[in-house]
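anyone seen this seq b4? input:
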Amino acid sequence: MSAELQASRRDATLILTISNPGAKNALHPDMYAAAIETLSTAERDDSIRAVILTGADGFFCAGGNLNRLLENRAKDKSEQANSIDNLHGWIEAIRDCPKPVIAAVDGAAAGAGFSLALACDMIVAGASAKFVMAYVKVGLTPDGGGSWFLAQALPRQLATEVLIEGKPVLAPRLHELGLVNKIVADGTALDNALAWADELAGLSPNAVERIKSLVRDARSNSLAQHFEAEKHSFVESLHHRDAQEGINAFLEKRKPHYK
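predicted toks r here
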């Protein structure tokens, strides 16, 4: 079986599964274009309310394939540069997707696999799951935005430690640091992520999309700019059909039903 990104549906949730049997779900360039196209399609599909990114066979993703990287050393530098550009396109597609994206991590998320998990809006991880940026162990530096995400989320000293030492960090530690949302029993990350996605499916799609956008842009905005973004988002949301349904449902003491 070849490396591929498998797409499936459960109710209102799109499940993307990284699959590369025998290679701990190492990434392959063919996955990048498939991921970008699939997320683009999901963006236009109102029946999809959430996306889950996970790995096949109880293992999230080992990151890049070192044998392929060795082969690329014999090629022009543009070969690897183009591959990284496509990986970054996948990362951007996760960030730009208006639907919440949940990483369901069992086993380990290493290298670019860790970056993919960090790009997601929320992370559900098995209690024994490991997260590692081991690029330094083979004389490389991070890609996939890994160093950016860690530097944004952690104090500089901690981010530097994780990246320069390249040692595994267990899920409970990342939960303490605020990078992992939920710790669950090993082997149940996907099931728990699906249950969470089902909850999110009952929320206002318009509000969820706008909140994701506000959070994504908050760190790059000044407070004054963010005030304007919040004002615009609130006013537009108030005049959206979801607000009418949500407010009426609250006043009528019933569950809202969003289209």
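The longest strand covers residues 4-10. The beta strands are 4-10, 13-19, 50-55, 101-105, 108-110, 122-126, 130-132, 169-170, 182-184. kinda curious what u guys think
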